[in-house]
Design a protein that fits this description.
Elements (H helix, E strand, L loop, with lengths): L1 H29 L6 E15 L2 E15 L22 H11 L15 H30 L1 E10 L3 E4 L2 E4 L1 H4 L7 E5 L2 E2 L3 H9 L5 E7 L2 E7 L2 E3 L2 E3 L3 E7 L3 H20 L1 H14 L11 H11 L2 H5 L3 H24 L8 H19 L14 H24 L6
Antiparallel strand pairs: 1-2, 3-12, 4-5, 6-7, 6-8, 8-9, 10-11
Amino acid sequence: MGIIGVLVIVVGLLISVALHECGHMIPAKKFGVYVPEFAVGFGPQIFGVKKGETTYSLRAILLGGYVRLVGMFAPARDGVKTTNRRGKPTLAQEAREASMEEIPEGYASRAFYLLHPAQKIIVMISGPLVNLFLSILFLSIALVGIGIPKASLTLSEVPQQLTTQGVTVDAPAYAAGIRAGDRITGVNGSAVSSWEQMRQSIASSQGSIDIDYLRNGQLFHVNVDPLRSGDNVSIGVIAGTEYQAASVGTVVSTVGETFTGTVSVVARLPIALWDVGRSIFTGAPRDSGGVMSVVGIGRIAADATSSDATASSGGWMRSAALLLSILASLNMALFVFNLLPFPPLDGGHIVPAIYEWIRRGLARVRGREVPPPVDTARLMPLTYTMGTILVAMTVLLMIADIVVPISLQ
């Protein structure tokens, strides 16, 4: 049964990535940028269909996706060094040349680098904003559509015997005829509307207790002689679970907590990765609130939809809410992480666009000529460095999730 949870997370994550890329593609096309391909996955193409001037493809390695925006890098300005000491093109120049070569004849005016800085910011930030919206959507469905679990007066279990102070005795409620599925409606002649109210009424009672309950729409009345041990009073019943829709305020609060929690995790990521590496070599337990890879997330999703997890009352609803919460957390992570100001992340394109916008504004105020687009190709060494770090981080977390997985129990 656990495979259901894994499939839900895989499909949900792929949809989230695809919509993230749509967030980039739609405004880019609106601003006139030529978009030759939109892909889900990497590597060899499995399926592709061309609609208009864009090919929409599914690729073999389903670990992300991309949208190709032609002309990401501006040509080198006069005086900029384009070769290294060996006479070969620099990484920046190679990126510029590749960027120019992918622009078909007649499409030069539709290059990304020619956009106004504000348009560049909109294109690049729209992807993460889609993930923020999805995070809010998934949390809203979990909290409002499914609801928050609370103890129900409809009993999930009425054990036949109880053990108190090391002695096994007959359970009072079972002996009085109360069974699982019955719904308690009153205690000592007073109506009760919540499990806490019923518990307090029983705890404050003296002597035997009158219990009213419904079974198949019919009202029953029994007298129960409770078990007493000090201040503890028990009739031997176990609450069921019911779900209550959360308020808008609760949803907003939960979204805020998810955001701040994600920011906190990203901020301490280097320390968290160090702890993960130490756990791999020492076997020390990992922090349950720490980072994990898709392997660890898949393991949690599988546990959430295992036979044991779904067998109890409300099990499937609880599992669905957990899966939605996982998807919400993943999308919040995509939102926050992609805004880091390092290429190839979206924030690594947003910051240069902001700088370009400011520089344009200052030139306008001073009455000077509008400066050319920022030469973002010069960030290619940082791009390769960050790419290497991201790959290494992914591999480290996957190994850790196999060798010393996080346990939420």
